[in-house]
Amino acid sequence: MTAESSPGVFDGKVVLVTGAARGQGRAHAVRFAEEGADVIAVDICAQLDSVAYPMATPEDLEETARLVEKTGRRIVAAQADVRDRERLTEVVADGVEQFGRLDYVLANAGILPAAGPQGHDITAFTDAIAVMLNGVYFTVDAALPALLRNPDGGAIVITSSAAGFTSVSTEFGTMNHGAAGYTAAKHGVIGLMRHFARSLAEKNIRVNSVHPGGVATQMVLNEAMAEWAGAHPSFSLAQQALLQLPMMEPRDVSDAMVYLCGPTGRYLTGVALPVDAGQTLK
User: Fold this and answer.
1) How far apart are CA 260 and CA 208, in angstroms?
2) Which residues are known to be catalytic?
3) Which residues form a coiled coil (predicted)?
4) Element (DSSP H or E) covering residue 188
5) How many Å separate Cα 96 from the centre of its chain?
6) Is the Cβ–Cβ distance between 265 and 229 less than 8 Å?
7) Is the pLDDT confidence value at 1 over 60?
8) For residue 50, which of 104, 113, 149, 281 is within the disulfide window of CB 3.0 to 4.6 Å?
9) 13-275 belongs to which CATH class?
């Protein structure tokens, strides 16, 4: 069968993915396209001063679009900052106009502003909250009008972190504004998830969160984070998984996204799902 004719879990469906230019977001967009979904892909594609590692570029988002189109599915890819509610609303509306519907929301956009001297600036805290807490709320808010038009409901999955259950900071030396902001935001989205799960259940819209441990993306595998982890052995120790497995790849998290959004997850809502090889059991 060709990519266009292959049956998939999400045939005829549409997914919104934030932070889609690379890493987990790109993996989710491509995986959902492989399962038959058309994709609305959003990424800021710009650098934040509070982030010590290089962030995604417009070329990264173009590559995501190319990979989605290679599956035979359609994509609307747009540069947008999840902190900008009006811009998000415009992008979602444009995608829905082109595709006719919206079924799934993967609120994935995130930053890790704990490393480097930037982590000690108060903007590292405010940016973390703005992107990963406010930005999640704005993403869901922008998507809700289209989701609510579906008679069969839909699904929302929020990307939290293992740090949604514990703390990025592991000792006094790792305590900074960026670590605090990341930890607070990733804890906070559990509350948002439960708020939406209860509120939207009667509309048959399921809402869950995933909590990955270390994933092999540019957010984790970069010079600034390597230096920070090397200077603080307690941080590296806290990231170790219990299962003797290689470091997770983005597609491993995509498997959880497919599970939660697809028919296999039809009885799941309000669930904070660890995908961390036992990291948070220690």
Assistant:
1) 7
2) 182
3) none
4) helix 177-200
5) 20
6) no
7) no
8) 113
9) alpha beta
Closest by Cα among 179, 68, 167 to 121: 179
- Polymer length in residues for the chain: 282
| Strand, helix or coil for residue 4 | coil
Q: Which residues contact 197 (CB under 8 A, 6 or more apart)?
A: 206, 207, 208, 269, 270
CB 164 within 8 A of CB 96: no
The residues pairing with 157 across neighbouring beta strands, listed in sequence order, are: 106, 208
Cα Rg, the chain, nearest whole Å:
18
d(CA 19, CA 44): 7
Are 50 and 131 spatial neighbours (Cβ–Cβ below 8 Å)? Answer: no
Calpha distance 258→30 (Å, rounded):
11
CA distance 218 to 52: 11
Tens of pLDDT along 231-259? 878 777 777 788 888 889 999 999 999 99
Q: How far is residue 72's CA from residue 70's CA, in Å, rounded to a whole number?
A: 5
d(CA 227, CA 43): 27
CA distance 265 to 282: 27
Q: Is 153 left (phi over 0), alpha (psi -120 to 50) or beta?
A: left
